[in-house]
Amino acid sequence: MSRKRLFWPALAFALVLLAAGCDEAPNEAASSGESGGAQGGLNIAVVTHGQASDPFWSVVKNGVDAAAKDTGNTVNYQAPQTFDMVEMSRLIDAAVAGKPDGLVISIPDAKALSGSIKKAIDAGIPVISMNSGSDTYKELGVLTHIGQTEFEAGLGGGERMAAAGVKNAICVNQEVGNAALDLRCEGFTESMTKAGGKVKVLAVNLTDPTDAQQRISAGLGDADGVFTLGPTGATPALAALKADNKLGQVKLATFDLSPEVLQAVADGEVLFAIDQQQYLQGYLPIVFLTQYKKYGVVPTGIVQTGPAFVEKANAAQVIDLSKEGIR
Amino acid sequence: MAVTEAPPGPQADERVRRAGLLRRLLSRPELGAVAGAILVWVFFSLVAGNRGFFTLDGTASYLAVAADLGILAVAVCLLMIAGEFDLSIGSIIGASGMVIAMLNVEYGWPLWAAILMAIAFSLVAGFLNGLVVVWTKLPSFIVTLASLFIFRGLTIGVTRLVTGRTQVGGIDVSASPVIDTLFGGQLGRFPISIVWWLGLAALATWVLLRTRVGNWIFGAGGAPEASRNLGVPVDRLKIGLFMTTAFAACLVAILQVVNFGGADVLRGTGQEFQAIIAVVIGGTLLTGGYGSPIGAVFGALIFGMVRQGIVITGVNADWFQVFLGAMLIVAVLVNNYIRRKAAEAKR
Questions:
Q1: A7, A18, A57, best to mutate vs chain B, most B CBs in 10 Å
Q2: Which residues of A fall within a CB distance of 8 Å from B68?
Q3: ipTM higher than the 0.85 cut
Q4: Would the CB atoms of B315 and A22 count as touching at under 8 Å?
Q5: HSE-up of residue B275 (Cα within 13 Å, Cβ side)
């Protein structure tokens, strides 16, 4: 009897909670926007393929939230629970149904998302892309792209390594077949070869660090430089060099940041780490959409956020910012 | 002509009580789900009505989500009424999709042949599931949990072995207009998957309520030993139902591959649990023997409305999963309450 009595109050309570929660989210952004100063007042939807629980994308979301505050806009960030293009396109459709003033997306798979993106553009919503899709955004009708183009980033990495005196390097690819990673190695190879060095691509499995470490040790040969494409390649590479006592002779550099990588850079074990500054990939699209809505101005072409180099000199500052979720 | 007293009409037999239409409606298993669906719709209309929930686009977006889940839910409903679970359908979605994509893109098979191959693959997968369950007499929960991992692992492993990637795209559907219309067509803003969903639900309801096989399904779930003694081929029935759920998973995979032009090794992850939730919201008991595919239709509808409604409302992505779980609990509670009330009203 008491169970039945409690049912309706419990249901009412749950519904009130839900309604309160639903209203809270937009109000939060709007009120913090007022303190920001700029007029803004736009409603912008952001749909990416990276969950806010992912440390990389958490920084992007921080950029988005900061831009919302500074411009006084209401921004809604959505991402699928897993890397699923079907779910992502549904999220874009739902966002478009709300008729936002602007849409920011990442384009990991242009073919799968083209339908939803076209719907948004046909509905008259300005779309800006970030992080992925630098080679497909233009034909879809997207205004501009903000991110790091992988080939150019690899190119920059190779130039730096060659300048540090590396003549014979291996490029460790932890996920062969991932087009973005392949491009990084290609850019690296081109600039190294131009500087007179040579490069060998070594494939390892990102899910098995122990095996990766063994393979790197075995594949070192007489190389004097190791270039990895992410923390899942850098950590086993560092372990391999330490185990073989080659830290002084072989120079190690990597793409992307992680706490271990940053510490290694600060300690001088890693020559440099390439930062794609994903905070800007979250921050800038909001700013650009605001200006586009106001005056019709928007950057033409790709806005590069990387490669930015973290070296021993600036490592300490980056570590502090990384703890705050900015880098 | 002798005048005799008119014989007493049917209502004179006081042992049989005629239930009014309202009473009969109240005791249907779907009622709770319908009420839940109305409740959720009203809620989002209040909260998100002016943000696009009412528009054709908004409606199409949640119906599309509901259709994909609904196709699975209808098949899973039949299986659960028969007393079994199938946790591997998510993996079968990924595997079937990848079969189509790899055969068409890597090996140049025509699209219709790749699709037929995927259907054959899914039927074999379902058959294996059913065979293992029936032979080993292990709970289907365990058997299909194992096949969830096995099929997913096979998908990832074989795809990377053959293509070196985890996504296979580049399927050109425009070369096969029949397939394009059948699986990728649109009715206005609404995808054709909705037609497949409602059609399959109608078929399942007809089978369940109007055919012998339907009786068998209820029997196998409610009283398996008694059914066996009465001559119901429970084992063959269960194997057939596992093949049905696998086929439903393949159909969803075909729809997704045709609509999105490619396949992904992780597609379908988690769909098996969402399908079970939709079926349970729809009034089917977890213990078997009682349920309704129409209820599963409304369960999937509730799920779709909640999924897209939360996004349209503008809830911060960080809190998305909290709201999804809370709304589902509320929907199930309403469902159970109404079912209890209906059961009491019967007396």
A1: A18
A2: 86
A3: no
A4: yes
A5: 32
- Contact flag B326-A18 (C-beta cutoff 8 Å): yes
Q: Mean pLDDT over residues B47-69, rounded?
A: 87
CB contact at 8 A, A51 and A80: yes
pLDDT digits (tens, 9 = 90+) for A199-213: 988 888 777 778 888
pTM: 0.79
Q: A109–B167: do the CB atoms touch at under 8 Å?
A: yes
Which A residues in the span 83-122 are in contact with B, Cβ-Cβ below 8 Å? 83-86, 89-91, 93-99, 109, 111-112, 115, 119
Chain B residues whose CB is inside 8 A of the A119 CB are 57
Alpha-carbon dihedral sign for residues B184, B185, B190, B193:
negative
Our CA dihedral for A87, A89, A90, A92, rounded to 10 degrees, sits at 130
> What's the distance, CA B95 to chain centroid?
18
More confident call, B168 vs B22 = B168
Judged by DSSP in three states, B344 sits in helix
The residue among A190, A275, A197, A182 whose CA lies nearest residue A231 is A275
Residues 6+ positions from A147 with CB-CB distance below 8 Å: A129, A130, A131, A132, A133, A134, A276, A281, A302, A303, A304, A305, A306
CA distance B53 to B267: 27
Q: What is the C-alpha separation between A158 and A178, in angstroms, rounded?
A: 20
Instruction: Decide if A30 touches B, using CB distance below 8 A.
Output: no
Tokens matching residue B326: 């809370």
Whether A25 and B314 lie within 8 Å, measured CB to CB? yes
CA distance to A194, B198, B300, per residue, from A163 (Å): 12, 65, 60
